[in-house]
Write a structure and sequence with these properties.
Layout (H helix, E strand, L loop, with lengths): L6 E13 L6 E6 L8 E4 L3 E8 L8 E4 L25 E7 L4 E7 L10 E7 L12 E10 L4 H8 L12 E4 L35 E3 L4 E8 L5 E6 L4 E6 L2 E8 L1 E4 L4 E7 L8 E8 L8 E7 L21 H8 L17 E12 L3 E6 L2 E3 L6 H6 L31 E3 L3 E3 L4 E7 L12 E5 L4 E8 L4 H4 L10 E2 L1 E4 L3 E8 L4 E7 L2 H5 L3 E6 L20
This protein binds ascorbic acid.
The site of ascorbic acid has 4 residues, from loops.
Protein name: L-ascorbate oxidase
Enzyme class: oxidoreductase
GO cellular component, one term: extracellular region
């Protein structure tokens, strides 16, 4: 702790580049000519300054620092229409914020579907000098997971807002550190009972896998984050156990698994001991869960040095658990508990907001997602500025609903599928304790209920519990875990289930809370929380230079 906190300065240009993430060339949103964007590595307490220049020709841009709470700098949260105006082509915006907590994070675009276009990268925060992590490791590995489509996000966005909607479908490939193989497999061949051909990659290609090099008989900390647009993933390493020690920048009670589910917006650290036969290399695989998979597994190798990295493992890649084996998913998710000594939740709450997640129709056929029957459509003036300066007519002053009708049957498609759009905010009392019950339901089609990972900006929340069917306060509240619930910034709702969260609204600003599936947010699946905005000072002019605050 003796070392003074540093200011870490980065100069980034965002621009489209030709890139072949999965061996097929596309146009990808890159940073400084790179995809994924550069990795940021810094120490807790450091101030990060990113001087971001928009080199796109015709689009605005913003970047969200996922998992960083932005204490005192809500204008740097990087959410278009919420915390700031999009940065125009040719303009430079200075993100300046403090890293409040060590952990595994990432950053990504938060305007339209720019995250899906490739605007993302890793953000790793180390503990302070002289501080200790509650576990030991000899080396570190990093995996940023994403999914990839060959159709541009512009094409996807038009499809989503057409009548009838054209759904984006399943990804063409899964990427690990921005690398995947579309038309071939690095395992390949009959030996691996896969009908795809073996890739002929020299290693220098943009789509060549990033090999994880390790030494035998060491402990590695593998940092994993998922910035997928859609896919829920399962990751496994052939023959190796993984001990989960961190989730979303918070330490958890260590537990060992053979495979791990990771939903979009989540991050984990796992410890891997390289105690297997040192003469072999081992597969690292990721596969799709929660949706009928149409995408081949993503693969890379755990290379035990000094073996050649081109030596293929003796056994085939780990098989991803069945996509709809939710028992398996729930067993993993509910095993995540806070490490002893972690901050505990308040034992009572001031306000409970129940959020019903539904798929709906609007204006005679367009498809939307709605929360308590309101589908979020963001205003042209960012909330932070319009609330701070008390501007009228910037957004709807109608308070969004605190819950949904008692007789709503979450097991059936909506009786009346019609919804409306809205942009009202939930105004939270500063420093109050807020419970959110996320309630899943049946989608538009019979017997369909999807997974939705919900991400909260500006805070971590405690996950107090998960359950099936409709949340019943009398019955279910008693089962809340107030002893060691995990602190997280993203939590999933399972099909037809509910998830209970608690957080303290102690961070003045305006914060998005939304499904982290990119097309779902695009279709309105989110809400906005505002708290203590009068205490927010020093909003840079540039963050306000649009809409009503621009005048
Ligand atoms: O939002 C979605 O739309 C499709 C489907 O419901 C209609 O095509 C799907 O799988 C989603 O997640």
């Amino acid at each position: 702790a003796a070392e003074a906190a540093k200011v870490r300065h980065f100069k980034w240009d965002v621009e489209y580049v030709f890139w072949s993430p999965d061996c097929q060339e596309n146009v990808v949103m890159g940073i400084n000519g790179q995809f994924p964007g550069p990795k940021i590595r810094a120490t807790v307490g450091d101030t990060v300054v990113v001087e971001l220049t928009n080199k796109l020709h015709t689009e605005g841009v913003v970047i969200h620092w996922h998992g960083i709470r932005q204490l005192g700098t809500p204008w740097a949260d990087g959410t278009a229409s919420i915390s700031q105006c999009a940065i125009n082509p040719g303009e430079t915006f200075y993100y300046r914020f403090k890293l409040d907590k060590a952990g595994t994070y990432f950053y990504h675009g938060h305007y339209g579907m720019q995250r899906s276009a490739g605007l993302h990268g890793s953000l790793i925060v180390d503990v302070g000098e002289g501080e200790k992590e509650p576990f030991h490791y000899d080396g570190e590995l990093n995996l940023l997971l994403s999914d990839w489509w060959h159709e541009s996000v512009h094409h996807q966005e038009v499809g989503l807002s057409s009548n009838p909607m054209r759904w984006i479908g399943e990804p063409q490939s899964l990427l690990m550190n921005g690398r995947g193989q579309y038309n071939c497999s690095i395992a390949g061949g009959a030996h691996y009972s896969s009908n795809s051909t073996k890739c002929s990659l020299g290693g220098g290609e943009q789509c060549a896998p990033k090999i994880l090099h390790v030494l035998p008989n060491k402990i590695y900390r593998l940092r994993i984050a998922s910035t997928t647009a859609l896919a829920s993933l399962n990751l496994a390493i052939g023959n190796h156990k993984m001990v989960v020690v961190e989730a979303d920048g918070n330490y958890v009670q260590p537990f060992a698994v053979d495979d791990l589910d990771i939903y979009s917006g989540e991050s984990y650290s796992v410890l891997v001991t390289t105690n297997q036969n040192p003469r072999n290399n081992y597969w690292v695989s990721v596969g799709v869960r929660g949706r009928e998979p149409k995408t081949p597994q993503g693969l890379t190798l755990l290379n035990y040095k000094p073996n050649s990295a081109s030596k293929l493992p003796t056994s085939p890649p780990p098989v991803t658990p069945l996509w709809n084996n939710y028992t398996h998913s729930k067993s993993f998710t509910t095993s995540i508990l806070a490490l002893m000594g972690s901050p505990k939740p308040p034992t009572t709450f001031h306000r409970r907001i129940t959020l019903l997640n539904t798929q709906n129709k609007i204006n005679g056929g367009y498809t939307k997602w709605a929360i308590n029957n309101v589908s979020l459509s963001l205003p042209s003036t960012p909330y932070l500025g319009s609330i701070k300066y008390g501007l009228k007519n910037a957004f709807s002053t109608v308070n969004p609903p605190e819950g949904f009708p008692n007789d709503y049957d979450v097991m059936k498609p909506p009786v009346n599928p019609n919804t409306t759009t809205g942009n009202g905010v939930y105004t939270l009392t500063l420093n109050s304790t807020v419970d959110v019950i996320l309630q899943n339901a049946n989608a538009l089609s019979e017997n369909v209920s999807e997974i939705h990972p919900w991400h909260l900006h500006g805070h971590d929340f405690w996950v107090l519990g998960y359950g099936d069917g409709k949340f019943d306060p009398k019955r279910d509240e008693k089962k809340f875990n107030l002893k060691n619930p995990p602190l997280r910034n993203t939590a999933v709702i399972f099909p037809y289930g509910w998830t209970a969260l608690r957080f303290v609204a102690d961070n003045p600003g305006v914060w998005a809370f939304h499904c982290h599936i990119e097309p779902h947010l695009h279709m309105g699946m989110g809400v906005v929380f505002a708290q203590g905005v009068q205490h927010v000072n020093n909003i840079p002019k540039q963050a306000l230079a649009c809409g009503l605050t621009g005048n």
